[in-house]
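Why STAT6 protein? Reviewers of the renewal asked for a concrete example.
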Amino acid sequence: DRVPFVVAERVPWEKMCDTLNLKFMAEVQTTKGLLKEHYFFLAQKIFNDHSASLEDFQSRSVSWAQFNKEILPGRGFTFWQWFDGVLDLTKRCLKSYWSDRLIIGFISKQYVCKLLSTEPDGTFLLRFSDSEIGGVTIAHVIRGKDG
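Here is what the prediction returned.
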């Protein structure tokens, strides 16, 4: 129902999720789309809100400025620039790993620490970098003598 070349000022977060998912699957050429957990991470990133629940984000809308004009806090790029970098990296280098669900990808550093806290030494995971466009961060477990 969209008029060509007319961009809505705001769109519901739920519609944004659908669009990001379709873009991701088409660009990467995979049948493995984004999951609910990925949407939660993306919502935290675009809204700069790490205290809200998944349900809290469902009633929010995203502005064009939030999506593609405003620089993310503490970064030198917009949400879209960052997301596009993830698309490019996944398409070029990580497609098979993503398609096999071997990359968690869209996950916060804080949640990674929680996930890995009970895992044995040598356990690792890959996530998309928060601070570098098109980068990957490897988180791993190495326990010191103090535990």
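The chain has six helices and four strands. This is the kind of structural detail the renewal will allow us to pursue systematically.
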